[in-house]
Amino acid sequence: MVEHDDILSDAERKALANLSAPVSPRPMVLVVDDNPVNRDALKWYLKSRGIECMTADGAQDAMFKLHYEPRIALLITDLRMKPEDGMDLIRQIRESERAALSIIVVSGDNDVKAREAVDVMHLGVVDFLLKPVDLEELLGLVKRELRIE
Fold first, then answer.
1. How far is CA 139 from the centre of its chain?
2. What DSSP state is assigned to residue 71?
3. Does a structural domain hold residue 18?
4. Whose C-alpha in 11, 22, 57, 107 is 20 to 30 A from the C-alpha of 76?
5. Is the separation of the CB atoms in 103 and 93 below 8 Å?
6. How many domains does the chain have?
């Protein structure tokens, strides 16, 4: 009986594996801010750096998108929003099926109390940045969390 173990060369096996392997979906960032100018500016900045991005105008919209878009791997949220603030959103996420989601908090509110910043960090966020945000620092955090170069 003839052995047929070596019908394909190593190069052919590798090429076949690349053809049949499922394509890994690109991770996406969800930017949440009730101010459309801030929200869109951050979205366009990230997109200009090759990072897929979508936006939400508040906690309810964000939770909807998190439920229906599994590619969201990172959330960037403002702390002060109406009617629900960023703290409420983070708590909702931590109690949901997306509890392990990476979150970066940004705030333009100079009145953020030290206690609030500590509370946010206790909810397991990646970082807390004050506006105006250092975009290079933010980009570094985003790339690290998405594991991209």
1. 11
2. T
3. no
4. 22
5. yes
6. 1
Can you give the pLDDT at residue 68? 94
Structure tokens at 33: 């801010």
Is 6 among the domain residues? no
Give kind and range of the element (H or E) at residue 27.
none
Print the domain residue range for 42: 28-146
Could you tell me how many residues make up the chain? Answer: 149
Q: What is the pLDDT of residue 94?
A: 93
In the block, residue with structure tokens 């933010």: 138
Q: Is residue 129 part of a domain?
A: yes
**Global pTM?**
0.80
pLDDT of residue 27: 93
Type of residue at 51: I
Task: Determine the 3-state secondary structure of 95 from DSSP.
Answer: coil
Residue 63 has pLDDT above 80, yes or no: yes
What span, in angstroms and rounded, lies between the C-alpha atoms of 119 and 82? 19
SS3 (DSSP) at 24: coil
d(CA 9, CA 116): 61
Residue whose structure tokens are 């509890």: 99
